[in-house]
Task: inverse folding
């Protein structure tokens, strides 16, 4: 399953694949670049694996959206192992993690 994005009102939801790693860089960037939304939601429902490339992609997204004065990014449906990596990396200070 590829990375997909869908918009409802001012919320843009990006649904990730099973692996969130370097192979996803281009598809992930395309999912949020040049979109018009106020809230960006990254859905980890299907994601079983994330490496440091995934963390870097999230930070790049945060930087890109901050330049457009968009500060609400939610990371949702994180499996326990993914959530643990995000918390250890102190991403709860940059993103809303549920």
Result:
């Amino acid at each position: 399953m590829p990375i997909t994005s869908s918009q409802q009102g001012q919320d843009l939801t990006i649904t990730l694949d099973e692996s969130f790693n370097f192979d996803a860089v281009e598809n992930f960037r395309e999912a949020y670049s040049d979109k018009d939304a106020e809230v960006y939601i990254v859905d980890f429902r299907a994601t079983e694996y994330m490496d440091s490339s995934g963390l870097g992609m999230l930070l790049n997204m945060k930087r890109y959206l901050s330049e457009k004065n968009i500060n609400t990014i939610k990371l949702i449906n994180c499996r326990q192992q993914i959530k643990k990596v995000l918390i250890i990396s102190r991403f709860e200070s940059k993103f809303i993690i549920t």
Q: What stands out?
A: Residues 4-97 form a domain with the Transcription Regulator spoIIAA fold (CATH 3.30.750.24). Helices lie at 25-32, 52-67, 80-88.
